[in-house]
Amino acid sequence: MMKNTQEIGSLLLRLILGFTFFMHGLDKFQGGVENVAAGFPAMGLPSFLAYIVATIELVGGIALILGFGTRIFAGLMACIMLGAILFVKLDSGFLGGFEFDVALLIIAIQLLLNGSSLLALDSKLPQIKLFSTQTIPDDTRKGIN
């Protein structure tokens, strides 16, 4: 039962994070990404980052809703939120605007660390292992030292 409730919780977090980022990315494109890009230099950031951020928000939001590349997109969104806090909202203080960003950052980190397999495309695709979990037998390790 505990596993099921954890998966339901992760699903809800994945859906709300995906929807939130999708809407923010869509807003940037509908309002003109060039307008967003024009404000980046005032924050000490290059203008081209606005296009990258907007694309990650839009595409990553859809991917999270579908449960595709959950950990990868959650990691990218965590980076975006960290950047938003440090470069845009930090001076305003916690209650001055970055409390919501901290909440989104923590949700993204949770999904990065734990994933979300319930109703996710990730669970239907073959798993790619980046690191082997196979152990090396002791007798073959002797020459490694």
From TrEMBL:
- Would the keyword Transferase be found if you checked this record's keyword annotation? no
Annotated InterPro entries: DoxX (IPR032808), DoxX-like_oxidoreductase (IPR051907)
Q: Does the keyword Cell membrane apply?
A: yes
The name under which this protein is listed is DoxX family protein
One GO CC term, this protein: plasma membrane
Keyword terms? Cell membrane, Membrane, Transmembrane, Transmembrane helix
Membrane topology recorded in Swiss-Prot or TrEMBL? Multi-pass membrane protein
Q: Which family does it belong to?
A: Belongs to the DoxX family.
Localization of this protein: Cell membrane
